Amino acid sequence: MEHAKIAIVILNWNGEKLLPQFLPSVIQHSQLEGTEIIVADNGSTDSSMTLLEKQFPEVTRLQLPQNYGFALGYNEALKQIDAQYYILLNSDVEVVDGWLEPMISIFENDPAVAAVQPKILSWHNKQEFEYGGAAGGYIDKLGFPFCRGRILNVVEKDEGQYNDEVNIFWASGACFAVRASLYHKAGGFDSDFWAHMEEIDLCWRLKNFGYQIRFTPFSQVYHLGGGSLPYNNPRKLFLNFRNSLFMLYKNCPPNRLFQVLVVRMILDAFAGFKLLAEGNPKGLSSVCKAHWALYSNWNRLKAKRRQLKTEAAPKWHDEILCKSLIWKFYLQKKRTFRELINS
């Protein structure tokens, strides 16, 4: 594949209905010189590739032999793509004019930045932030993720309150730009995650290398979201709980690791019984399976942690909230990012 300065890479799985709806905006608004649009097909069983060939011949097609999941699927695709910058973009994201330039400009002007996230708004309600990314991601001291513009299940309207360019902890996998060399230096996504939280884990590793993750409000996209599994789906719950524990074990500094895992065990037990009380016994089972996955993969994770220690030791960072998100949300009723931080 010829060298492209910017490679917009869309990982597709059975997106025959989504591609005609969202891909035209990507083609229309991605005319920056040196930009190539690539759809990497993750072993689809529908007619996605035939549709691309007929309706979007200007888009490069990359066929993967099977469905590798989100994490490994991107790793396998990006091995084959030579570019200076990758833009990882979900197939259900609509972009607008001028969305690329602000992100690339940050890279060109600040070599300390490894990844950049645009403002991600809801496609359904364009005045609201989108759940998975909003105006940049953070985690609390126990590994629970949240965003500027979204705390747990509370999503804010975009009223310009986060229109400042700031360093964040993680960039959303729905849409973010990353330096190709650093993506590969960090080892890409952890393929054991399959899907969910792999971008948080990657950003933590990039920060451990000494790089920054940046949010820019000057680039804006609209994400449909919710296209895979509902939030209370047992499979999604399992992946979220398990991958959060995996991420903490790999990246948490040694002076915090034991305490964090013990507290998480307690809070996750409460979460499991809450799911049971809500009539979701499979949800409780998902939480139990997630913790069993941590213990049964202990030696494997220990080896990963040991390897990461030799490359870039696990560290705490300024963008990690040194408070409990759960405590602040449920007991102190802090429902917005500003309330959370100012408290």
CATH topology of the largest domain: Spore Coat Polysaccharide Biosynthesis Protein SpsA, Chain A
* Named CATH architecture of the largest domain: Alpha-Beta Complex
Report the CATH superfamily of the largest domain.
Spore Coat Polysaccharide Biosynthesis Protein SpsA, Chain A
Total number of strands: 14
Indicate the proportion of strand residues. 15-25%
Query: How would you characterize the largest beta sheet?
Result: 9 strands, mixed
Helix count?
12
Please tell me what the overall shape is: globular
State the helical fraction: 40-55%
What is the typical, i.e. mean, pLDDT? 95
The helix/strand series, from N terminus to C terminus, equals EHEHEHEEHEEEEEEEHHEHHHHEHH
Just give the CATH class of the largest domain: Alpha Beta
Total tally of structural domains: 2
- The structure class reads alpha/beta
The separation of the N and C termini measures: 51 Å
Return Rg in Å: 19 Å
> Which spans of ≥5 residues are poorly predicted at pLDDT below 50?
none
